[in-house]
Amino acid sequence: MMLARHHHRLLAARSLAALSRPNRLHMSYFHQWEKLPGEGREPRKGVERVLGAIRAERFSAAHPVSGAVEDSFDAVVVGGGIVGLATAREFLKRYPDKTVAVLEKEGEVAPHQTGHNSGVIHAGLYYTPGTRMAYTCVHGAELMYKYCDEHDLPAERCGKLIVATNESEHPQVEKLYKQGTANGVQGLEIVSGEKVREMEPNIHAYSALHSPNTGITNYWLVAQRMAQEIRESGRGDIKLSYEASEFTKTKDNRVRIRGVEPRQKGPNVDVVAGHVITCGGFYSDYLAKRAGGNPHKDRVTTFRGTYYQLKTEYRSAVKRNIYPVPSGGGIPVGVHLSPTVDVRRGHEMIVGPGACITFSREGYEFFDFKLADVLDNFSNPALYAFVLKNMGLSFGELYRDLNKKAFIKQAQRYIPDLTLDMVEPSYAGVMSQVFEPGGIAAGDYILERKCMDGLVLNLRNAPSPAATASLAIAEMVCDTAAEDFGWPKSQKNQ
Ligand SMILES: Cc1cc2nc3c(=O)[nH]c(=O)nc-3n(C[C@H](O)[C@H](O)[C@H](O)COP(=O)(O)OP(=O)(O)OC[C@H]3O[C@@H](n4cnc5c(N)ncnc54)[C@H](O)[C@@H]3O)c2cc1C
Fold this sequence. Notes:
- GO terms for molecular function: (S)-2-hydroxyglutarate dehydrogenase activity.
- By secondary structure, the chain is of the alpha+beta class.
- It has 2 domains: 70-158 and 214-298 and 444-489, 3-Layer(bba) Sandwich (FAD/NAD(P)-binding domain); 299-441, D-Amino Acid Oxidase, Chain A, domain 2 (2-Layer Sandwich), CATH 3.30.9.
- The chain contains 15 helices and 21 strands.
- It is globular, with a radius of gyration of 25 Å.
- Bound molecules: flavin-adenine dinucleotide.
């Protein structure tokens, strides 16, 4: 009896499959199994532990006979950096009945900017009062300290000195003091050169701004924990090696996102979302273009930030973050010294980063070259304007990226006894920056709203301090999404 029913189901499955693929295969020539090994089994606890409940369920589910593999979620966040992950986490927190998936192109979360930065929890000094950047940095820094505390992750309020090396730089210290105070940064103090020497005997300064609440953490680790929280919720999925390559609107007013493993031709896997938020870091413009955004506006330029680090025996030459006053151009905050609490790279004192324009979006090394990215740069008038305005800075950075002596010279201005043999090479990160017409670095986050007939929200500019601010950016993005997508706000903070 059982066998007859099984046989009947098998025949039905075969004829359905034949119907759905007319003239392509003579199915009867093939020996077909109803299920492939593992299909339709009970979800395995081991898979759940590694990949989360949703994955364990789907991994065991039978492949639909129609041939379409399709996962469906209330919301999909594209980009598994700290901003995308924080956004998905905030969404789950606000909407206890809804599901979310994060799509990440690479084989792990946080592989790009989030995994390769200075690790500084910025206090909020550099940003124009009243901007979203200023608000989210100050608020986000407190949220970040709290998050690290609650999840027992390393975070140290080690403080920071922004040093003027001579009298002519002192007005910058005063400007930052006023700006920081207007932004609500606590504990700021202008200190004399003598006081700096007491605090940091190896630092030469005319004066400095002391920010005791600036700190350090490991954003890569924070992002891993956020991903874990999303998986553990049972309502969230993280899809890795999933490059969102095509967005189409379905008949029932949802978005189908076609994904493929990067640098591979297939298989294509589809995810269907009620709504989509893209947080693509230095691919945010490419991604927005695919997701119904404006292809001509808010284009990204990438800069490589190379680091050196003090050799082990010199690591404790300074105790806290030491920054120069900003050098202008809107891009670098300057080559600084920062202690790290990095699970992969350890407790080091890094020196950097530079800000050298790259010839590939993933230009971690000087000679990394991708024709499509270079052509994109060449066709970006805002970038020409930036380079023309900042000729010395742009070519200087190219030179310093290749020349250790010139690179370290920048730090020697405030740590004069630093010699070349005291430092060794360290990692590099690639930073994303949108330039506005006229070549001015966009000084705030850019949200492109109501794309694809109101189904998509694109976050298009999230440069530093977006790691510090990620938890606050997530609140801002979810507030905007609620407005645009008609989501209720009432379930917030449940
Ligand atoms: C050298 C350097 C130093 C910095 N220092 C600091 C600092 O000290 N403090 C601070 O707060 N900030 C710092 N920043 C800035 C901070 O790291 C970034 O602003 C932040 O990490 C941005 O996070 P994100 O999620 O937007 O981007 P990312 O971390 O770059 O994540 C975006 C993700 O989207 C994925 N993606 C892109 N396209 C697709 C697609 N089509 N399909 C699927 N996935 C896709 C990418 O693979 C990537 O993982 C620094 C940045 C750099 C580079």
